Hints:
Largest sheet: 4 strands, antiparallel
Order of helices and strands: HHEEEHHHHEEHHEEHHEE
Number of domains: 1
Bound molecules: zinc ion
Structural class: alpha+beta
Helix content: 25-40%
Number of helices: 10
Amino acid sequence: MFTQEIYKYKIGIAALAFVLTFVFSSYNCIENESKAGISASKNETAVRPDSVKIPDGLRKLLKAYPDFLERADENHLYWKDGTVMIYDDGKDKTFEEKLDNADLEDMMTQEYVRGADWDYPPPENFEPGRIRNEAFFLKMYGGTQSEVKGNLVTISWTPSGASLQVSSVNDADKQLKAVADELAAMPEKFQKYFKKTAGTFNYRKIAGTNRTSAHSYGIAIDINTQYSDYWQWNGTMNYKNQIPIEIVEVFEKYGFIWGGKWYHYDTMHFEYRPELIVN
Length: 279
Ligand SMILES: [Zn+2]
């Protein structure tokens, strides 16, 4: 009997505790809601930070280039030096017009897919990274040949020991050096694709266009041309590639995109574009 009494007593306490917990938590909810209500009505005219929708492309740019970029809003990119760039210029463009006159939004629209599981061969005019906003890159890597050259450093291409000139801006040099070290450690069967390279820095326009090549900024490298396919050399848009994906994955790991994933394929070409690699 006595133990039964204690048992009932315990049940009673537990039930009471449960009810009290429920009452208190409801009270807290009501209180929080009313607090939120007050702050919302106070800030009715001001833009609330959590309501600013930063486009994914801008968010990725901020993440990729912390040395230069400070913040963004719905349609602007704010640089640390005070420069403001518009994200989407609102203009309708053909594909060629996008290549010639890309805004940041055009540059970030096509999504680069890392690794072996990508849409192969690339659909017509799908080539993430080939559309570049020139002003953006000129500002970071140098607006003139001598400015770009002032940022170049020499790294040793580990697979062969050759010297290559790469921009030190955004640590592109350190990233390429990390690629080189990892490639050098790959099995022998891979070495022929990259031991010899066709170089990095080359101040020039892209053949047949008025557009600045990524090689002009010191952030691109062409690996062995002997095993490479380039649409301009092949004279056809029929996609062809001989570069093993294992090599591509090493470059991607360090922020480089591959020209072999472009409709206008260029399988020897890699360039440092962390904004297309970050999540
Ligand atoms: Zn190239």
